[in-house]
Each structure stands twice: as C-alpha cells, then as structure tokens.
Amino acid sequence: RLYAVALMAWLAIVIVWLVATVLRDHGRAFVAGAVLSGLAMLGVLNLSDPDRIVARVNVARAASVARTGSGAPALDLRHLAGLRGGAVPIAVREVLRPSTVQLDSVAQSTDVAARCDAASELLRRWGPSSRLARQDVAGAWRWWNADNVGALRVVSERAAELERVASTGCRRHTN
To answer: What is the pLDDT of residues 83-95, one digit of tens each?
Structure first.
C-alpha cells in the first residue's frame, strides 16, 4: 500500500505540473519536471526505509486494535518477519514480546504457530547461519546494506531467544 500511495502522490504532482505548464503553453518544461519529480519521489522512498514504515504502522495498528477490542485481526507476525532489513528489529521485538492471548484457546495456538513461523523465518533469513551472514567477504561490498547489517546484528544478538521460540512453538504447533 505504501508504494501505491507514493505512486498516487507522484501522479498528483505530475497533474499539478501539467496544469502549471502544458495548459499555460509552457509544454517544454513539463517532461523535465515530470522526470525530476519522479526521481525525487524515488529518492524519498529510498531514504525513508519503506519496510520500517510498514512495520511501525502495522504494530501501531495492532496495538490500537488491542486497546479498542474491536475484534479485528492481530499483528501478522509472519508478514512482519518477511519484510526487509529495516523492519527486522521491530519484528524481533514483536516476536519475543510476551503473548497477550488467553490461555487454552484457539487464538493461543494460532499465536504460538505465528510466533514459531516468524522466529524461524527471521533465523533463516538473518540468523548466524543465514546466507547473508556467510556471504563471501571478497565481493561483499557490492551487496552491503546498512539495514541488512543491522538486521544481522539484531538477530545474532537475540538468536538464542528466537531459537527457543521457534523450537518450543513449533513443537507445540505440530502436536
């Protein structure tokens, strides 16, 4: 949804620019302005870390739903764990947060399964034995990314806790 909103915002800018240029017989500036505004929008998206924004919004929305008790679905931990590097610290925090689901309920088994799947995914993608952690050092500068380094660090620091959630939760989930 974030990219769709960004695209619509850029289209609104282009339409305003169209009105300001082409409809006033200054058409030569339209193409340059449209291209520059598109590049500026891409720059803003790259600097803003969309995955972190999505993670923050999803966590805030789930917290709001929990406070109001509206019965809407809780936080989707599987989706959160599938986001890229910038969202990993938030995903780890939410997976390791104590569950607020009532004991002995269907919701609890669903929550345990979601935590298990999310912890397993975080360990698979960002853990000490992940592909990124084992990457060849000789050419690593070509793939270096600050968000990925932060994600590897956070998951490595909390790997034991994530492994405990994954093993305990998955064992309960399969029984």
So the answer is: 998 999 999 999 9
